[in-house]
Design brief:
- The chain is an alpha+beta fold.
- It is about 25% helix and about 20% strand.
- It is built from three helices and four strands.
- The model has no long low-confidence stretch (mean pLDDT about 85).
Length: about 110
Amino acid sequence: VEDHFEGEFGVASPKQPIKVVLELDAVAARGMRDVTIHPSQKVSANPGGGIRITLQVEDALSLASFVLGLGSGAQVVEPDSLRDHLRSELELMFASYSPIGGVSKRK
């Protein structure tokens, strides 16, 4: 009930859950096998020791910091909106570490 009436403008429309699929390599998977990041989470094993994590969340972009924290051992399979957001963020991060010391500003 509280979720339905959240916000200062009264009734909030329910948000459609978004499917998020993450693939972790064997190194990243070591620390994540027994970690629950969301109640909807399902984990399956991948060949080579990696795992696939599938979630249903209301805001896929809220996982961006979590995925970035896993480094190159994690890849977003879906949704494309999260992949695109991470790609943009990584490009900005890469530019901020350029040898000439230039810092890119957010658009």
